[in-house]
Structures are given as C-alpha cells and as structure tokens.
Q: What sequence folds into this?
C-alpha cells in the first residue's frame, strides 16, 4: 500500500474505516539547491505538499474525512471553506459520488472557488455570511441543524471540529520520520494551528511506536498579521489568543479565532519548538525565492515556513549544521493573483527579428 | 533513492550523469471509482502525472535534460516551447542556477507563459515566429547557432532532438511495470508522439531486464485534428504523416509535423497497441468526467487517454476484464481557459438568508 493509508494503524483511526484514496501523501522531500547553500546552510530541505492530488496537504485530511462519511453512510459532505480544504473535499467527494455543498462567505474571491466548482461541488454564498457576526452565527446554527439531519458533521480542517480527518495530516510526520529521521527542526505555517498540531502529534505517535526515535522541534510560523500562537509560544506563555482582525494578506492563514491554538502551542512547546512571526512582505519574497532559486511553485502560505527558517537563521537560533525541513503546504496555482505579482517584473521580451537575438543574448 | 533516478541504470543514461531532482516521478496510480464501474469495467486505472513538481510528465524529461546540461558544463538552457516542457525546463533551470531562455511563437497565449515566468525563465517572442515559415526557419537557424556557441542543444521533448532527456520519460513504464505488471493496455495521448514512444521503449527495456515481463499494449490516442500517427497505426500503415494544419484545440497536442511519429507508430505496433482518434468535444467531456466523477483535475490533453479508452470500450476492442491504465499527463491549472468552460455550468448560488438554505438543500 502506498500513501497515507499504509500508516492506518499508526494514525489511530476507527478500525473499520475503509481506505479511500486519490493518491495523497508520499510527497517529495528535496534538498535546497540554492537558498540554503548561498547562506552556508547545507541542511535545508523542503517537503512538497504541492504534489498532492488537489495541490495541498489538505488532501491528507479529505481522504480520511470522506472515508469517515462513507463509513457512516452519510449522504453528503458539508463544509464552509473557500480555501484548500474546500478544493480537497470537493475532489474526494466527487470521487466518492457524494454531493459536496460548501457555504461561502460573502465576497470570497472567485479565483479560489474555481477548483471546487470544477470538481462539481455546489457552492452557495449567503448574504452577510462572514461579514455580519449575527448572520454568521445564524448560518452556522442552520448548518449545524442540517448536519444533524444528514447524519454528518461540518467539515473543518481543525482537530476541534474534525479530529478524525485531522489524523490523516499526521502522516506528514510519519513520512518525514521515515525519510529523514535526523531532521531536527520542522518549520510549519500556521493559521488556526491544526497543521502544526497534527505534525507535532504525528511525531509523538511515531516515538510511541519506535521508542528510539527523537522527536524533532516543531516550529510554528505565523504572519505578524495573524499572531494567535507564534508570539505567545516564543514569549513562554501557555495560551493562544484571538486577534481582533486577521490583517495578513496571506490567503489561507487569516484565522482570527484560537480554534486549535492552545493545543498547538502546547504541542509545539513539548517538542522544544519555537514561534516565528514573519511579515507578509517577507512571505511574498520567499514565494519568489522558492520559484526562482529552487524551482518550487508555491502559494504564499506555502512559503511561510521558509520565511520562518530565514528568521531562525538570521537570529542565530539555527546553526549551519542543523538539519531543517520547511513544509511547503500548497501549490502556486491555488493563488493566481499572487502569481501575477510574482511575474510582473519578468515580462515577455518582444524582438523585431532574429538578428535582434544576438543583442538579447548578449553575444558579441 | 526515490523517483526516476532509482532507474538510472535501466534508463541507459551516460554513466557519469549526476542525479538532479525536484521530486519528479513516483506518481500515483489510482483505480477509477466511477467512470469504469458505471460501464461495468472495474479494471480502469489512472496514472496521475499531474502530481509531478511542475504539474506534468515533462518533469521526467527536464530532470535528465538539465542534468545533462550541468554535466556538460553548459551555461544555459535554450528552448522553444510555450507549453509544459517550458514550465518544466524553467523549474529545473531555476533550481540548477542556469539561465533559461525560451523563444515563444508570436501570439502564444499569456496564460501558458505565466508559470515559466514565475520560475524566472526569460521569454522572448519574435515577430512572425511560428506564423511565417520563412521567419521560423531563420529563427531556428539562429537558435541553432546560439546553441553551438553555448555548447548546448535546443531542448525539445522529442527523441529526434533530445534523446537523453526523453529517456527520463521511460520511467513512467518502469513505475507501471512495478506497480501493476498485470495491466495490459496503456492509453497514451500523442501530439508529436514522444510520450508514447518513451512508454513503449520503457516497457521493452523492462522486459530486457526482467525477461518474464509481458509488454502491455501501448495505445496511441490523438485528437482527430492532429492525426499524424493514430490513424495510420490503426490502418496498418507503417508510416506517420504530417497534417497541413493541426486544427485540434487541445493545447499541447497541436504538432503538425511527424517528428518522432514513425518510430512511435512502429513502437506501438510492436506492443500490439492500436491507434485511437477522438474528437475535441469528447476530450473536453472527458476532462469534465475526470473532475466530477474521479476528483482528478486534468488539463484537456491529460483527458485524451480516457477518451481513447472510452472509444476502445465502445468499439468492443476492450473487454470488461481487461486491465487498462490511462496516463493523465498534465494538471488542470495548466490551462485556465479550459477550466472556465468546465465551471460555467456550475455557478455559485446566492442565497438571501439562512432560511433559504432549507429550500436550497431540498429539506422539507
């Protein structure tokens, strides 16, 4: 068996859960070819979650979540996401023959919705949802009632709401532990914190199974404009905190509420992981570095881990010999506007004739 | 070692070629969940080349091609493609620290160029290139001269021009032979025919190494509007033929010249493979089927193999028990306009309030 299901026992899933797969997991782990070496750091690696079937690590969640729905014989997949979770659920629902209905906040960017619609998911946008807190609450209540009627749950990629599905995400750690047990620093982007929590828990599960394994430090990296976990982790506090307004522009990491935050903070600290805060500007720069220096096409959220690694190097908290892995969470095609920004400075050059090619190539 | 480089010996590469990798290969092979079963065909599988680092099987070519450039200590990657080969070469060049310069035909669609530009490749469009045959010839001559000056070759994903790089594509067959040696029908999309030729050659190399292995039938599928190989293969003729004008709208498969065609036809016939011609309409329908019935997000060219499989079933040439694999060559994000067509029929529904949700869900 390939992919995440070979770890079925380790993930601690309901024993009767039938494997359901679109080829998620077994993602590449590749060594930095330029960014690390240029800084004298030869031990930087990237875990390319971009290579999952729908283009992000959320496929590890969706595979288990949809398997659970099938197992419970529910007849629908219900969700409220306009991001990568929605695309993943839409893909796996399509393959499972389940209708997938997704409540979208008013004003959600069209680009993010296209992949879900391509898989045939039914999207509905409710006036005021995500804008008025009163309306949002009423919509959630209504969704909760519909979920009960359909004998299902609302799919959210957080342990707080969907602990079974999130167990699938732990498989990232199992793969890292197998492929590179000597990597001692894992940099993980965080919005609500579910990914970092799953990664930390995954390593603990691996150590339970293989007692000689040394759990690496799981570092939580957040944009400054959504500092719910990373700042307090760094300060030694033992709780996460909501922000009034998630002002970061990094799509997918705007999660103002705590959700899994307290557990994430504790789990990262248990691994001796630290918190890193990075500016949006640095994240967009890292997206460009990944593309131009490593050939890795990532969405901005996927470049957050590298921004955290750079900060750890700058501050001296990471030594040149320290082996580190940055998790690149999602594919560049997920966020077309960010690609426009990326390529603005690299236009197509128009040449009048083939003779102009010498000058263009700088040939004497 | 993971990916294509574990087959280095089998690929018959120059022995001193240093592995260069972005995590290409090891792509998922998944069973059809709906399309096959709904037709009583339970043995349909998909090989998801969409999961490669830049989103297409061309990464298997680029990894070897760039390794060869590095090995020869050339200082540049030169190419003339506006499609997936360009994106793959741009990615691997970026990682290799090589400038990548790509001559683009006049009028090439902007969307196709974005991924190359994101990786930092330098694109230049020459007036009349690809439109006037006279200008095109002059541009090619000029490029050939530049290639000599730079001690390199112009990168084209065809055995005729780049036999070393194309050997990397043979790894698809090695993976299939390992994962599912009992699959006896492989459906392969063809433009110039390089992919089908690589797949057929790969299986023959596998049989040389493992004499008990039975080479599967490699079927060549082409859009009717680019019938250079498939029609003659079916007719029993022993040559490919150019078309005056490749009128198919399937991006990436518009290759009017023969290029590898004669070798492709012969290699497919040696495997007892057949030729299948499919309409563009059927291909776009298959793109939709893959998304909505299988959760597979493919570009139109990636759905051509399924269109061929459907034709083989319809004609009775494939029996229900015959195990078949369709190679899904590229990711849906490669061709944004085709996604627009796909989702036009599935708009976002706007609801006035949460009470409207009952009616929307069809709850009494």
A:
């Amino acid at each position: 068996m390939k992919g995440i299901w070979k770890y079925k026992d380790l993930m601690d899933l309901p024993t009767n859960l039938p494997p359901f797969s679109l080829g998620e997991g077994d993602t590449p782990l590749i060594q930095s070819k330029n960014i690390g070496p240029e800084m004298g750091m030869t031990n930087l690696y990237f875990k390319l979650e971009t290579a999952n079937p729908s283009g992000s690590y959320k496929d590890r969640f969706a595979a288990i979540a949809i398997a659970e729905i099938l197992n419970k014989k529910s007849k629908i997949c219900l969700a409220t996401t306009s991001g990568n979770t929605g695309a993943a659920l839409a893909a796996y629902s399509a393959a499972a023959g389940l209708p997938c209905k997704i409540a979208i906040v008013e004003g959600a960017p069209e680009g993010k919705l296209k992949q879900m619609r391509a898989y045939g998911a039914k999207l509905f946008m409710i006036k005021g949802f995500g804008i008025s807190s009163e309306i949002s609450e009423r919509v959630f209540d209504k969704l909760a009632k519909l979920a009960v009627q359909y004998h299902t749950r609302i799919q959210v990629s957080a342990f707080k709401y969907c602990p079974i599905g999130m167990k699938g995400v732990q498989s990232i750690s199992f793969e890292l532990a197998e492929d590179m047990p000597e990597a001692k620093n894992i940099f993980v982007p965080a919005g609500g914190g579910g990914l970092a929590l799953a990664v930390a828990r995954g390593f603990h599960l691996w150590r339970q199974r293989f007692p000689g394994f040394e759990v690496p430090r799981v570092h939580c990296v957040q944009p400054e404009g959504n500092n719910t976990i990373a700042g307090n982790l760094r300060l030694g506090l033992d709780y996460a905190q909501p922000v009034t307004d998630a002002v970061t522009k990094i799509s997918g990491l705007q999660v103002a509420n705590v959700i899994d935050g307290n557990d994430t903070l504790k789990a990262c600290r248990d691994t001796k992981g630290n918190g890193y805060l990075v500016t949006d500007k640095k994240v967009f720069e890292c997206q460009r570095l990944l593309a131009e220096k490593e050939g890795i096409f990532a969405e901005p959220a996927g470049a957050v881990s590298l921004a955290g690694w750079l900060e750890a190097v700058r501050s001296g908290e990471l030594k040149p010999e320290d082996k580190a892995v940055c998790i690149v969470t999602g594919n560049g095609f997920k966020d077309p506007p960010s690609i426009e920004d990326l390529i603005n400075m690299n236009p197509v050059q128009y040449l009048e004739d083939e003779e102009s090619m010498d000058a263009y190539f700088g040939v004497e």
User: Anything to note?
Assistant: Chain B touches chain A through 82 residues (CB under 8 Å). Chain B has a mean pLDDT of 95. Residues 221 and 276 of chain B are 5 Å apart (CA to CA).
